[in-house]
């Protein structure tokens, strides 16, 4: 039960973190730049595009021989729903100070969320699975991750997504921050009980 609760809290927080960053208007996280650009071109919500892109990415897992877990499938739906729910109630401030606060809270919330949902050990997100699948085919994790995120930022920007200082700050800080939170939320497998005489 703890793993499931941690997974779903983490996925909700991940969507909230993305929404905080979008609301700051200082630059969305890389994948949300793409979702926002698609939203502006089609009129569908950012969350709807998050779900759609996530589902399409899982299809790309098939040739990469990646297997989705409960966390993978939950990620596709819950993060998208959370983004839309959060954007509905978050403020859209004009003050630069408030926008910077939203940006900082968004990055921190996403880092905590990453520790929660990965620490639950119930399957990677669709974007993470694409990265590890490409890495298993010979690319380094660093090159796979960088290549994917640069590509989605460029496409998202061309479609009208917001790229800014927040996008750069997220890229530079999310790794180190996630490294802090992952050990805090990692759930160890229970040790096997010794056989009784």
Automatic annotation (TrEMBL):
The keyword Hydrolase does not apply. The chain crosses the membrane at residues 43-62, 69-90, 96-120, 150-174. Pfam families: DUF6198. The keyword Cell membrane does not apply. Keywords: Membrane, Transmembrane, Transmembrane helix. This is Uncharacterized membrane protein YczE. It comes from Marinactinospora thermotolerans DSM 45154. The lineage of its organism: Bacteria, Bacillati, Actinomycetota, Actinomycetes, Streptosporangiales.
């Amino acid at each position: 039960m703890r793993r499931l609760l941690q997974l779903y809290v983490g996925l909700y927080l991940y969507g909230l973190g993305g929404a905080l960053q979008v609301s700051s208007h200082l630059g969305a996280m890389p994948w949300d730049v793409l979702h926002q650009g698609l939203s502006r071109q089609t009129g569908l919500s950012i969350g709807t595009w998050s779900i759609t892109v996530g589902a399409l990415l899982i299809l790309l897992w098939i040739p990469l021989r990646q297997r989705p877990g409960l966390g993978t499938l939950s990620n596709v739906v819950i993060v998208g729903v959370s983004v839309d729910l959060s954007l509905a109630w978050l403020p859209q401030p004009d003050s630069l100070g408030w926008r910077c606060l939203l940006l900082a809270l968004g990055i921190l919330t996403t880092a905590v969320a990453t520790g929660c949902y990965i620490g639950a050990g119930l399957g990677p997100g669709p974007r993470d699975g694409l990265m590890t699948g490409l890495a298993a085919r010979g690319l380094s994790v660093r090159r796979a991750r960088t290549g994917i995120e640069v590509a989605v930022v460029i496409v998202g920007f061309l479609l009208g997504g917001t790229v800014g200082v927040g996008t750069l700050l997220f890229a530079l800080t999310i790794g180190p921050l996630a490294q802090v939170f992952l050990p805090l939320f990692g759930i160890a497998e229970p040790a096997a009980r010794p056989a009784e005489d």
